[in-house]
Specification:
rod-shaped; transmembrane
């Protein structure tokens, strides 16, 4: 048996989790009736999409 390190797919799971939250933020952005709610939805979508990309880079 070879002694190789076990690689983890943690970055994929974290990226998918942040991506799912980003999708929820995008739905809020399009579905909220007020302008302030749309702004919060955009902010959440942008922030969690950014965190999704950063998670892949950090855990790589």
């Amino acid at each position: 048996m070879s002694e190789a390190s076990i690689e983890s797919d943690k970055e994929v799971g974290v990226a998918l989790a942040f991506g799912a939250i980003a999708v929820v933020g995008a739905v809020v952005m399009f579905g909220h009736p007020s302008q302030l709610g749309k702004a919060w939805g955009f902010g959440a979508a942008f922030l969690f999409a950014l965190c999704s990309v950063v998670a892949v880079q950090i855990f790589d």
